[in-house]
Amino acid sequence: MSDLRITEAFLYMDYLILKATKMDDYEEMMEMKHQDLTGSLMCFRALCCKGPPPARPEYDLVCIGLTGSGKTSLLSKLCSESPENVVSTTGFSIKAVPFQNAILNVKELGGADNIRKYWSRYYQGSQGVIFVLDSASSEDDLETARNELHSALQHPQLCTLPFLILANHQDKPAARSVQELQLGFSHCPRLWRLAAQ
């Protein structure tokens, strides 16, 4: 909206006020309004002509891990959802996780035996990977997780992407430390980052 159009809008509003109050001295009213017009015009510009806020960049991530590792709970917490209604994911789900400077669109893939063989179908378009690991799991589950991680790290669609391995359930008594897990996963073929949750 141009400055001229805004001024015309204010003048028309003044005319309507004058007509409603039956004020006889239009000149006196215009002089009072002229003092406030500059300030009002600046305020109007700040509110209406500012435009929409700049769009936050969006990044597509894939979140994988065995059943019970805490993928759904993690995403629910990041989305400020209630943790009481968390149900293990069957198949996949997509959540938009908002941050101040970006939005993460996270595809969470179920970790059951019969679903893991389909993980690779959902890798396309991903820009990063979160592998959630239950740090208090049994040795058998830890070995299965190690094999799945190794497979994901070598997958052609993921091999160049940033990888975060999240050692979840650190609050459980049987949880392994980050150092123990790093030793157990040291044979992985490329660089990755292990963080505790």
UniProtKB/TrEMBL annotation:
InterPro entries: ARL15, P-loop_NTPase, Small_GTPase_ARF/SAR. It comes from the Eukaryota. GTP binds at G65, L66, T67, G68, S69, G70, K71, T72, G111, N168, H169, Q170, D171. SUPFAM superfamilies: P-loop containing nucleoside triphosphate hydrolases. One of its GO terms (molecular function) is GTPase activity. SMART domains: ARF. Belongs to the small GTPase superfamily. Arf family. This is ADP-ribosylation factor-like protein 15.
